[in-house]
Each structure stands twice: as structure tokens, then as C-alpha cells.
Amino acid sequence: MTPGARAAAAIGVLDRVLAGEAAEKALTNWGRASRFAGSGDRAAVRDLVYDALRQRRSAAALGGGEAGRGLVLGLMRANGQEALFSGEGHAPAPPAASEAGREPVGAEALDLPDWLVPELERSLGERLAPVAEALRARAPVFLRVNLARGTAAGAQAALAGEGIVTRPHPLADTALEVVEGARRVQVSDAYRAGLVELQDASSQAVVAGLPLAEGMRVLDHCAGGGGKTLAMAARAKLRLWAHDAAPRRMADLPERAKRAGVKVTLTERPEASAPYDLALVDAPCSGSGSWRRDPEGKWRLTPARLAELVGIQAAILDRVAPMVAPGGWLGYATCSLLRVENGDQAQAFLGRHPGWRLETERSFTPLEGGDGFHLALFRRS
Ligand SMILES: C[S@@+](CC[C@H](N)C(=O)[O-])C[C@H]1O[C@@H](n2cnc3c(N)ncnc32)[C@H](O)[C@@H]1O
């Protein structure tokens, strides 16, 4: 496909996304209907679609339209590639006079929803603009070295032998940033043998911040696919339980645990195995720290949904706290940048639970390289 044809394909996919289809599904459907598209074409169309979703407001302003065509035209203008709209072959038609576009301003230029700016300002202060800018770009690909299977240097060497170049990342001793060959990771022998997992660097830093020790009874209460469950298991020999309100999200966890060489017990009733020495609540949240990876989330979030999430987080903390043994730990993590889900939530928990104290709190933003994350670590008296 020519670059122009790829732009036209991205416009079609974006129109379906704007009509309500999830980006992944729209891309899969396009891929199925486009047998002529090679792997390079698919990757390029995918990148265009996700870039347009990350920069949706500014691209719409620059491109003079909010539909797929306006977004891709705006992206191309921002990149000095407007000439791709040539009308030749399968390329999109040249811009009409009505598509002159304009410079984006304010929250539009930051590619943020207006309603969220005050809360982001309260949360990030002067870092608001640089963080918003970081959220407009693609996230790096990070790997977690599985220390139960070998060293970081060993994993790097194995990956390099398969054309995947990495460098250690300062956020965690287990974190490698992929600088070349990211698309080959999941088909590599190193990955298949469990030497590395795909995991964001801040997510790894959150787990590294937990006081895990040999023999501890640990509950991962919002385990999802088990990213943090496995990261915890690799740091110490634990007795580990994983729970999720949607158990099907943990469907792959037994297989992943096997590949990583660790044992995890899935439980629908975590109370039955209490008390735990440490419980991790990796709570459902706005996802605002990971909007580089899930840009649709940035436009989907509403004030009502955010308020609902804050209520869900508090209810989960209230359920889990009694399951922790006296002297034990409760880690509350979100991939959110918002104070209402982080520091405010931690203070509200302390207000409701006098037998607990806050030991540490750490915040990460994409400015450190990984996703935005927050960890509050409580200890029970
Ligand atoms: C941020 S995700 C977890 C990600 C996972 N820990 C990881 O590292 O890959 C939050 C998870 O919480 C689960 N969840 C939502 N409400 C819950 C609840 N009330 N109790 C337990 N889990 C819940 C969701 O199904 C989702 O899988």
C-alpha cells in the first residue's frame, strides 16, 4: 500500500471507531477485509489510528473536521505530510477550502477533555502541560525480566540474539526498554521461555515498592490478567492468591504462571484464605496514566464514571482491609494521574480505618518514562 492508501484506510477505521466500534475491533475487521495489506501496512494503519486517537482534539482542529478524514488530515498537517492527500491512486482527495483547519488552543492543544483540566491541574500542578504532551505520544515497549528465570543481563543477551535490542530502565531493576524489534517480542524464544514478560516500567516499580518477603501470604485482589501477580511472585517465594470480580479476566493466569515457573491459587472468595500478610488492590480506575496505550479511554471517561470509580475503589479497600493480618500491609495502586483516585482516596481510607497508617506514597507520571501510576502503602497496627 502507498502511504496515501494507508491514510485512506486509517480514515475508514477511524470513522468506525467514531461511530462506536472499539479501535482494536475496527482494525481487526479492516485487516480481515484487506487481504492485500501486508504486515507493514497493518502496523502503519494501526499507528495512524492510535496517533489520531491520542491527538484527537488537536488533529480535528488542524484538519478542519471531527470525522476520520479531518483527524488524519490534521495529523498529516502536524507532521508536514499534507501532500499525501493527493487524490492519486487510493490516496484521500485533496483538502477542500472548507478543510483549511486552524491552530488548536487551550485544552484542545493539550488533547484533554475540558472538564478534566481542573482536576489534572490540582493533581499535577506545573507538570500538567508536559504530562499532557507525553500522553499525546506512543508509549515505549517495556519488558519485565523474570528474576525467577534468570538475570537482566541474561535476558538482554537472549533477546539480542533474536534481534530485539533493549536497555535497562531506571524505574525498576527488572525493567528493560525495547529500542529495536518490539514487534518480534511475543514470537521470540526468550518470551516463550518465560525469561521476560511485557509489562510497563511504572507497573514494575509499583511491585518493587511492596515489602514482599519469603513465605508471605499475599492476595492480589484485582488480579486481572495477572501482570502484578506474576511480578510479585518473581520477587520472593510467596503463598499467592489471585482474585478478580470478573474471574474470566484471569483465564490466562494459570498458563502464564506455569510459563513463569510460579504457583498462584485463583480464588472467588478471598475471605476464605484470610488473613494475608500483604494484600494488593490494583484498583479499577480512570486509566488516565495509561492513556498513551488506551487513548479511547481519554475521551470515554465522564464525570459520572469517575465518581462511580472512586466509590468502587473505596468499597474494595473497605472489603480488603479486614482480610489483612495485624502488622500486615495493604498496597493500593492505580494507573491514574488524578488526585481524587490517589491521595484523596488514601486519606479517606485512613479516615474510615483508624487502625491503619500510611507508610509510603509514590506517584509516577509518563515524564519518568513509564505509565502514570500511584502506590499508597498502608500498614495495619
Ligand atoms: C487495573 S485492573 C488490574 C490489572 C492487573 N492487576 C494487572 O497488573 O495486570 C483492575 C481489575 O479490577 C477488577 N475489578 C473491578 N471491580 C472489582 C472489585 N469490586 N473487586 C475485585 N476486582 C475488581 C477488574 O475486573 C480489573 O481486572
TrEMBL record:
<keyword id="KW-0694">RNA-binding</keyword>
<keyword id="KW-0808">Transferase</keyword>
<dbReference type="GO" id="GO:0008168">
    <property type="term" value="F:methyltransferase activity"/>
</dbReference>
<feature type="domain" description="SAM-dependent MTase RsmB/NOP-type">
    <location>
        <begin position="131"/>
        <end position="381"/>
    </location>
</feature>
<dbReference type="InterPro" id="IPR029063">
    <property type="entry name" value="SAM-dependent_MTases_sf"/>
</dbReference>
<feature type="region of interest" description="Disordered">
    <location>
        <begin position="85"/>
        <end position="104"/>
    </location>
</feature>
<feature type="binding site">
    <location>
        <position position="282"/>
    </location>
    <ligand>
        <name>S-adenosyl-L-methionine</name>
    </ligand>
</feature>
<feature type="active site" description="Nucleophile">
    <location>
        <position position="335"/>
    </location>
</feature>
<keyword id="KW-0489">Methyltransferase</keyword>
<keyword id="KW-0949">S-adenosyl-L-methionine</keyword>
<dbReference type="InterPro" id="IPR001678">
    <property type="entry name" value="MeTrfase_RsmB-F_NOP2_dom"/>
</dbReference>
<feature type="binding site">
    <location>
        <position position="244"/>
    </location>
    <ligand>
        <name>S-adenosyl-L-methionine</name>
    </ligand>
</feature>
<dbReference type="Pfam" id="PF22458">
    <property type="entry name" value="RsmF-B_ferredox"/>
</dbReference>
<dbReference type="InterPro" id="IPR023267">
    <property type="entry name" value="RCMT"/>
</dbReference>
<dbReference type="InterPro" id="IPR049560">
    <property type="entry name" value="MeTrfase_RsmB-F_NOP2_cat"/>
</dbReference>
<protein>
    <submittedName>
        <fullName>RsmB/NOP family class I SAM-dependent RNA methyltransferase</fullName>
        <ecNumber>2.1.1.-</ecNumber>
    </submittedName>
</protein>
<comment type="similarity">
    <text>Belongs to the class I-like SAM-binding methyltransferase superfamily. RsmB/NOP family.</text>
</comment>
<dbReference type="GO" id="GO:0032259">
    <property type="term" value="P:methylation"/>
</dbReference>
<dbReference type="InterPro" id="IPR054728">
    <property type="entry name" value="RsmB-like_ferredoxin"/>
</dbReference>
<dbReference type="Pfam" id="PF01189">
    <property type="entry name" value="Methyltr_RsmB-F"/>
</dbReference>
